[in-house]
Structures are given as C-alpha cells and as structure tokens.
Amino acid sequence: MELIKEIDVIESPSKEYFLKNYFYPQKPCIIKGLIKNTGAEKWDFEYMKKELGNVIVNVFDNQIQKDAAYVQGDKKMKFSEFLDEIQKPYDVCPYRLFLFNGFKHSEQLRKDFPCPDIFKGILDDVGFMFFGGKNTVVRMHFDIDMSAVLHTHFFGRKRVLLVPYEYSKFMYKPSLNTYSIADFGFIDNIDYNKYPALKKVKGYDIYLEHGDSLFMPCGYWHYMIYLEPSFSVAYRKFPYGLSNMINGALNLTTRLWTDKLLTKALGKKWSNWKYQRTIEKTNALI
Known about the structure:
- By secondary structure, the protein is α+β, with helices and mostly antiparallel strands.
- The protein has a single domain, classed as Jelly Rolls (Sandwich), CATH 2.60.120.650.
- The strands form two sheets. A nine-stranded mixed β-sheet has the order 2-3-12-9-14-7-6-4-5, with helices on one face. A five-stranded mixed β-sheet has the order 1-11-10-13-8, with no helix packed on it.
- Helix 1 links the parallel strand 2 and strand 3.
- Helix 5 packs across helix 6.
- The chain starts with a strand and ends with a helix.
C-alpha cells in the first residue's frame, strides 16, 4: 500500500470555496478552525461527563469478532463509567462508542457545536459521536449509506488511513458487506504476504489533532486508530451523485438484510464461506 502523506489542509473556508473545491469534486481535505468561537472549544472528558454522564450507552468491544456490516453494542453501561474505562492505562483499549447521538440527550452540546455552515443540509441536526481509548482501532470500512462525512476530532490525537472507493476491489471486501477482512494492524505493519492485493492500493495517512475536521467523500474507506483517549463528532450529507445514492440505498436494504438473514440462518458457515471466497477472489486480481 502506498501511503500518501500529503492532503490539502485549509483554514476556515467559505461554504462556496469548500463546495466548489472539495465537496463537488469529492476530494478529501483537513479543515482547521471550525470549532473556533464555538462552545466546543472547551470540550473534554469532564465536560462530556457533566452533560451525558448518566446516559446508558451501548459499548463496542473489539475483542468480539463482528461478522456483519452493521452491529449492535456488546455491553451497556453509564456513559461516565465508559469514559473512566477508556482512560485506563491500556496498551490497546478494546472499548469504543460508535454512532452515539449525544445531541439527543444534551441540547447544550448541540448549541456548542451545531453543524458547520459549510456542511449544512437536511441532516443538520444529527451529529454522531465516536469515543475510544489508547490504540483503540476502528476496522477498515466505508459508510453503509455512502454519505459524505465531516469528522471533527477532539481532545487527543487520531490516525486515519483514508482510501478512495475506487480501490474497493483490492480491499478484501466480503460479499454484501462494507468492511474489509484484512488486518491493517497499526498501518505500518500490514501483512502483504497474506493480503497481497493491498499493494495496489493508495491511501492517505492522516493525523488529526484537537479541532481538526476531516472531510471524507462518499464511499471512502477509513481505518482509524485512537492514539490517545479522545472523541469525534461526525456530520453527514446525503450521497452526492446518482451512483452513490443507488449504492447506498442497496446497501441499506437488499445487501444489509440479505447478509443478516444468511448470518442468522447459517451462522459461521456463511461467514467462513464469504471470508474464504473474498480472499480467493481478491488475490485472483493480482
């Protein structure tokens, strides 16, 4: 895999500039300055505890293998307890919070960081939150609905491997799913003997700091590592372009539910078959 270190970094762009140069061409970039002069400048774990501490959340455990594209949490706990857990001195913290709509529970958080003007649309009110501890990883995937995403990071650092959708055939994607079965480890130690097709992929190697916003175009693959306990907020826009709209609709309806039915009916037989088939099919492209 060729890791591209250079990605456009822009400061507080106008809506017109962002749309013309990045959203319409579907070109990724890092945007700085979107949290300036907002309540989000003061966000940290203690602030989050104050606003959301008693909310019961569904926590994901990376130690449990997931065989489907969209899964439920593995355990429930109070949000304050979860934040305490991910700040423990793990070498690799396995726990994370995924697609958490914290704004539903705190109007203050919504006021602190409303959808930035450059990304406003029908989905303005939905800001999903993501939390992880030291070296928590998020497996390589693209968003099932093919939406475009503005991903703003807070408090600690995060490393992101961002891969254009055009490389999907080399990404070891199981049939009917939107994730990769390849092990990306900590990005620098990918096993190319096991996953040789990844040598044909070019991806952006990105480091996000507090307040950085990453624009991820529709269908872009992303693999994330929380280098420190930290969190992000993602705003979304409906898929741009007819092919992305159709693909997203098929993922959410036909493909998702077919995979769920086969997983429920056949269990490991289905997952083992699709994984083996994925490796054979992808390696045949080399």
